[in-house]
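Let us begin with a simple case.
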Amino acid sequence: MSARLPRVTVRMTVNGTARAVTVPPMKRLLDVLREDCGLTGTKEGCGEGECGACTVRLDGRSVNSCLVPAIHADGAKILTVEGLDRGAALSALQRAFVVMGGAQCGICTPGILVSASELLSARPGRVPSEDEVREALAGNLCRCTGYQKIVDAVRAAARETGGERRAKPAPRKATTKRGVAKQPVAAKKAKAATKAKAAKRPKLAKKRAALAPRRATRVRRGATRGSR
């Protein structure tokens, strides 16, 4: 009889649920998820880490599960395509793929969805550009859609989840303890300058009134001299 391969117990959290599986330490994480956890959404494409069909998120980062030994997932948090939905309802990302034709044969779709979910979670509150989406999905191959529908679906999902840039709200006016709105420093200076000018006007008027008779006398004298 051939010697049995050593087995280890791997404890991990898969889609928010604690799991413990006893498997050979070098068994692929892809096989553990499909065979031991019953999560068949993750697909095998090339088996060499080239196509991205088996992509899952390990502690938040996208990895090719066909290349990850089970022992490396011990104590980790794993997210598969089954963990993207919201109970019985599809997530905004999944709905966008259905509506916009981002999913066709379905082999590569789970890995693309998982990679896209990392992109959107890393950039909350904004719509990624086409270049950003293509760079994030560079490790996922698809032979059906030509990629444009996939890119459009990811960006549509970002818009649906509030990714449009929101206009900044107007700054609140500062108030005093009595609730009276405080004036900006520039406005205060302008107001003070206006008051100072207004205060000078009566003084200038008095000076002009006092000088008026003298000017009239000078004008008369000049006219008299000119007539001579």
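The second case is a distinct protein. As before, the sequence precedes its structure tokens.
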Amino acid sequence: MWRRRPNQRASLAALCVLALPALSAAQSLPAPQAPPELVTDRPGFGESSAVVARGIIQIESGLDLDQIDREHRDVSGQLLARAGVAPRLELRVAADGSDAEIGGKVKLVDAQRAGVDVALIPYLSLPAGSGGAGRAHDPGFKIAASGDLPHGFGLSSTFNAADVTTDGGRVWQREISVSLDHELRGRVAAYGEVDGGFGGAGCDCSVDGGVTVGVGANGQVDAEAGRGLHGAASDWFVGVGFVLRAPLRGRRR
């Protein structure tokens, strides 16, 4: 999904209603053994190369304020549900403004063997709501890679390509992001990112950064801010989000 190219207002109330069941379940998560590290696909434009563990559902949501240009401002929400169905596979459902998206994530390469993690994320963007009437289904894929650097730093990158419907027909849009992150103290981490989208004339380029704070073993809150550098990227944007993780009902032990 092409983030921060908003054209519809999302409902914050809907995000809260959808997240409440996960919050209730997360509070009752059994703790006979330590859960795996919580790795999320937010904030930022890029995706993580990690796959949600089998039998786990992870809800990631956020709210962004975009100053698109001098005259236009937009508030948009994102919601991503990730469910682990196999050791190297998760299923994904996302919503962002007038678009919905279904897909999956497959872990292709492990850092323990190759020194870098690589995952493939195929997806299909679906028109949703009144803003999506008459639009076609747009397929795409992402390749996410990450690796550790010395002194507690991490480097990650995501390549995103989609066959997008426009007024002039179908066009392949491409986007690439590169992010550098570092754990500051405890479960507080920070990142900086450069992102560029290529779908027409020139680059829709921006820079952004933010912080994440772990909440217990199964939660995270985050904040981000960025500025457009060139093309159709928003003049500036800020956002906040939260993540909750819980076991799927009926999970076998």
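The two ends are 34 Å apart (CA to CA). The chain has one domain: 12-247.
Keep these points in mind for the review questions at the end of the chapter.
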